Amino acid sequence: MKVKSVETFILRVPLEGRTFYSSQAKFPERNSLLVKITTEDGVVGWGEGGQYGPPAPVAACIDQVLAPILIGGSACTPIATSESLYAFSRDFGQRGTYIEALSAIDIALWDIWGKVVGQPVHALMGGAFRDRVTAYATGCYYPDQPWQMDRILGDLETEAASYVESGFDILKIKIGLLSVEDDLKRVAAVRRSAGDRIKLLVDANHAYTPVNAIRIGKALGDFGVHFLEEPVVPEDRAGYRRVRDAIDVPVAGGECEFTRFGFRDLFLEQCVDIAQPDICVCGGLSEFQKIQALAGSFGILTIPHVWGSGIAVAAALHALAVIPPTPHTANPVALQNEPVVEFDRKHNPLRDNLLEENFTLKDGCVAVPTGPGLGIAVNEEVLNRYRTAA
Question: What is the DSSP string of 275-310?
Answer without folding.
Answer: E--BTTTTTHHHHHHHHHHHHHHTT-EE--B--SSH
